[in-house]
Amino acid sequence: MHLFQRSHDCGSLNKTDVESEVCLSGWVHRYRDHGGLIFIDLRDRFGITQLVFDPAHNKEIHQQAEKLRHEWVISIKGKVMLRSSETTNLELKTGEVEVLVADMQIHSKAKTPPFSLSDDFIDIHEEIRLKYRYLDIRRGPIANTLVSRHKAMMAARKYLDSLSFIEVTTPILGKSTPEGARDYLVPSRIYHGSFYALPQSPQLFKQLLMIAGMDRYFQIAQCFRDEDLRADRQPEFTQIDMEMSFGTPEQLMAIVEGLIKAIFKECLKKDITTPFKRLSHKTCMELYGSDRPDLRFDMPLSDISDIVKNSTFSVFLDQLKEDGIVKGLCVKGGANMTRKDIEDYTAFVQKFGIQGLAWMKMQENELKSNIVKFFPDDVQKEMIAKMKIEEGDLIFMIADLPGTANQALDHLRRKIAKDRKLIHEDRYEFLWVTDFPLFRFSPEEQKIDSEHHPFTSPKFADLPLLDSDPIAARSEAYDIVLNGYEIGGGSQRVHDPEVQKKIFDILKLTEEEIHSRFGFFIEALSYGTPPHLGLALGLDRIMMILSKTDSIRDVIAFPKTQKASDLMMACPGTVAPAQLNELNIILGE
Ligand code: AMO
Question: How far is the C-alpha of 426 from the C-alpha of 444, rounded, in Å?
Fold first, then answer.
């Protein structure tokens, strides 16, 4: 059979095409038999066009059309006709016209799909959508996010190319990189007992490319991390990864802001305002209890430890004696909360290990609550001034260790904002968080870890702290936050092998570990390393926010479930014994 040659896609015909002979191809989206005339909505990625089969026009083709069913794939030839004003469909791009079919090829029939593809809005259980992902994509909304993702990648490539960044592909089979998550390992067939690790990011390769003199690198890179999954995490995800030599953090931040601007312009036709806000990690934690605050609403936290130490409220005083803090937030207009609301918020913070939630309401110009009597007038005055409490407001206060109090208040702040609809959903609030601590101490494991990764440079001024008080040292690292999501992170790198060695020592890596894990890298640093810095943006998270969805799976063509499985391919799966033999792997019981 000679395949009809498509002249237009299904989203392009309009009034100006009336009387033209056209050829369209696509899927049968809807089928209506109006006693005689058959109407078919033909769908492809670009849109929908109405076809008309008229027995008076072509009896044989009309008879063939009677057999068509949903999702059959066809091509047609026909003439574009103007629809009457009563039948014009203004919701469709092609709604003013229809095609009177003269000839048709049926390419393939379709089984009845497990869910309807002709209605974008019906809620289908995600498991079934993931099992039949190719049908889910055909429905439309996911296809739209994929198109948008493509535009973002094209915009990124164009923008970075214009600034002399070149895209270099780095290996997928490599050595473990210390990004902090568990690796996905691939056993070697040739070297029994040896493994490749899939990259958690191209971190070491991009630094090696700087040592190699490539100056400016980028890559739209697939990364793999075997970690606990959340709504914004996938085991396999995509970064827009960058690195540059001889630059400053200021320069890099301006380049990244330009990159994000280009992506937003391309995908949303929106001009975002730059430069983005900046907060040091310390201030950010003080104000929001989190290093990725959602700034689409106000409601900062206030540390009132110094004020309430002059109260007689023993719950607060006891905590302050135990190195705790007292911190709170002010809910504007919150005095209308009921006892039940307050009880619910108390139960909510208890999930984060908090004992209780203290509250006061400002009504008739005085603070009211069951605990006000423990707070002398001057203490109340200071609280009112610091927390900016006004008539009709409510304050919540938590006394606990700083980490616990901050975590609970961060969650409480977000929950109240959601419940009281305080979030400006149409806003994009970017924030740079800078001056992170270089290390963090893990009390459970009694050991020091890198806050980012071990190649992050200490702030120049804090270099002496590496010897005296490493935990106090700050890093030249910066995260970028959008609407409460961490969408990227990066840093100035260590380019001095001595400093790099000192950091490994603080991390308590033995000579042997350093040698076996990073020996090649330390050696590379010793052959003339330019000062360099970089950053990686989480493309999936950016697309998630741009597409206004809460699930990262909605912006990935073939995502994994929360339990890291692919329901369509039924993977991970078992392999043939012969394959295991080749790899010299014996499975345990
Ligand atoms: P980092 O680990 O901060 O930095 O990762 C950069 C960004 O990648 C995104 N991201 C994820 N997205 C989806 N699923 C995941 N499991 C996931 N993990 C991370 C986040 C994050 O901000 N090599 C460094 C970058 C550098 O220093 O240049 C790195 O990978 O948006």
Answer: 41
Centre of ligand 1 from the C-alpha of residue 514, in Å: 23
**What pLDDT, on the 0 to 100 scale, is given for residue 36?**
87
Pocket test for ligand 1, best of 165, 200, 201 (most atoms within 8 A of CB): 201
pLDDT in tens, 128-159: 999 999 999 998 899 999 999 999 999 999 99
pLDDT digits (tens, 9 = 90+) for 413-440: 999 999 999 999 999 999 999 999 999 9
What one-character DSSP code corresponds to residue 271?
-
Determine the distance separating the centroid of ligand 1 and the alpha carbon of 358, expressed in angstroms. 37
Residue recorded with tokens 């960058």 = 242
| pLDDT for residue 121 | 62
The total of other beta-carbon atoms located within 10 Å of residue 414's CB is 20
Neighbours of 453 (CB within 10 A): 19
Q: Which amino acid is at 546?
A: L
Q: Which fold has domain 133-274+530-589?
A: BirA Bifunctional Protein; domain 2 (3.30.930)
Ligand 1 atom with the smallest distance to the CA of 203 is 23
Ligand 1 site-directed mutation target among 206, 227, 237, most atoms within 8 Å of CB: 237
Q: Which residue has the tokens 């002010």?
A: 330
Which of 465, 480, 484, 403 lies closest to 434 in space, CA to CA? Answer: 480
Q: How far is the CA of 234 from the centre of ligand 1 (A)?
A: 11
pLDDT in tens, 373-383: 999 999 999 99
> Which residues sit with their C-beta closer than 6 Å to ligand 1?
179, 201, 203, 225, 233-234, 237, 239, 486-491, 534-536, 538, 540-541
Tell me the domain boundaries of the chain.
Answer: 15-108, 133-274+530-589, 297-423, 437-474+496-528
What's the distance, CA 192 to chain centroid?
38
Name which CATH class applies to 297-423: alpha beta
Contacts of 490 (CB under 8 A, 6+ apart): 242, 252, 477, 478, 533, 534, 535, 536
Residues in the chain predicted with pLDDT less than 70, given as ranges, are: 1, 120-121, 178
**What is the CATH class of 15-108?**
mainly beta
Q: How many CB atoms lie within 10 A of CB 466?
A: 17
